[in-house]
TrEMBL record:
Top-rank lineage group of the source organism: Bacteria
A Pfam match: Lipase_GDSL_2
Name recorded for this polypeptide: Putative arylesterase protein
Record-linked InterPro entries: SGNH_hydro, SGNH_hydro_sf
A single MF term (Gene Ontology): hydrolase activity, acting on ester bonds
Domain (SGNH hydrolase-type esterase) ranges: 9-185
């Protein structure tokens, strides 16, 4: 059995846009990915660690515990041995209370990669591979979350390219979610059901050869 940790935010938690409801596991993209990989003959378990509002490395001034860097090394320790960690963060860096841009978020991703690689895992346990997934660009925010993400569609410009450059610098894998999906047609930020399905299957195709490297 191979283990994948998905470390992300509400886009992967599966929030239903404009509601506080959550999609079922088999509807969320991490679940779609697990089902796809298992149906191909691989024995895979996906561990979801997805927190609504999580940033890369910054605090939320209104809600505690949203800094993605805090406690990440311990999460790697808790769930080890891991074969792969999938990082999909950044959208919340562009909330209206922040002035960060794509470069800032890319540096946050770099810090998260470093935290994973320096985590205090037990001797002899493997260092997991890392796949960074750039979230789709924020569109014009709509509905109840519009004030929270006002201006996000401008601040996030260039995120995919910035992430790809950082991944090349730190030697980890990269995938652009925006190459297969857009953000929600409903609220402009999250993912709709069909986007979860498309992303889960696309990431499964990227992940499958990475896991094959770990099979003896």
């Amino acid at each position: 059995m191979q283990h994948i940790l998905v470390y992300s935010d509400s886009l992967s938690w599966g929030i239903v846009p404009t509601t506080r409801k959550r999609l079922h596991f088999e509807q969320r993209w991490p679940g779609v990915m697990e089902i796809s990989l298992c149906s191909s003959g691989q024995k895979v378990r996906v561990i979801e660690d997805c927190l609504n509002g999580r940033r890369t490395v910054w605090d939320d001034p209104f809600k505690p515990g949203r800094n993605g860097l805090v406690g990440l090394a311990q999460r790697i320790e808790i769930h080890s041995p891991l074969d792969l960690v999938v990082l999909m963060l950044g959208t919340n860096d562009f909330q209206s209370m922040h002035e960060y841009n794509a470069w800032h978020s890319s540096q946050g991703i770099s810090a998260l990669v470093s935290a994973i690689r320096t985590a205090p895992i037990e001797p002899g346990m493997p260092m997991p591979q890392i796949l960074v997934v750039a979230p789709p660009a924020i569109r014009m925010p709509k509905g109840p979350i519009a004030p929270k993400f006002e201006g996000g569609e401008t601040k996030c410009i260039g995120l995919s390219a910035a992430y790809q450059l950082v991944c090349e610098e730190v030697d980890c894998h990269f995938f652009d979610a925006g190459s297969v999906i857009t953000s929600s047609n409903v609220d402009g930020v999250h993912l709709d059901l069909e986007q979860h399905w498309a992303l889960g299957n696309a990431v499964a195709e990227v992940v499958q050869p990475l896991l094959s490297r770990n099979v003896l």
